[in-house]
Amino acid sequence: MADIREKEQTNAAFDQNYIDETIKADQSSKAKQFVKKFLKRKTAVIGLIIILLLIVIAIIGPSLAPYDYTAYDYDHVLEGPTAAHIFGTDVYGRDIFSRMLVGTRLTLGVSLSAVVIGAAIGSVLGLLAGYYGGVLEMLVMRSSDILFSFPDILLAIAIVAILGPGIINVLIAVMVFTIPSFARIMRSATLAVKGSLYVEVAQSLGCKDSRLLFVHIFPGTIQSLIVNFTMRIGSAIMAAASLSFLGFGANVSEPEWGAMLSVGRSYIGIASHMVYFPGLVIFITVLAFNLFGDGLRDTLDPKIK
Fold it and tell me: How big is the CA angle at 200 (ends 28 and 303), to the nearest 5 degrees?
């Protein structure tokens, strides 16, 4: 009996290893096909290049700034673009280009952090709701429906109004309205993957729920997660900039893009460059993430050749 039991355990372990290796080989082949298809979509590649450039600027932006972003220079107040100040100066004579380089880290940091945290929470909730169903699924989906009934920016304003202004509270507000979209998408993806043959085989071999969820089911939902993640970053940047523009976010002395727009609107008649350049950078950034997200969606959609 002991020999038979040991043989059964050995066979079960072999079957499990075979399944894991098959899944990894299939994922590697799909990754190569994905890269080849993605590179054919020029607008998505351009969006990715812009995103990578922004990430580099966020990391080393302060060292690239030609001026101290906090230094006042009352001899060059509200100057338009010149060779010395390519984006002009603000009401205190501070170099706008330097402030925008430094502000890239703050703006992208808040938006990316909010989406990452929101995606993590929403994905786990959606994964559990899709797998277990029942009361948990009802609670997660009805809570998501309630949050979906509010426009994103109004929900964010309401949260910041309760918590108070500040960049951390902006992050929390953006995170909260990000959660339901990931929860709903992950639930749908989980329901689709849960009925796959390899999941049923893993269940028949006695896999624990935690292993089924995060080793077998979760990798099958990655495509939906990545596409929604890239699309939500653009919305998060717009929301964070809008809250700062309205005075709920970063302090006007901080080099955050929305806060710079808020200061510039008071001088749009005499120093329009204070509004144009931050607005243009926000537009290009959001467009880059949207182009990249569209490219990912089209590349990952098997119906599109």
Answer: 50
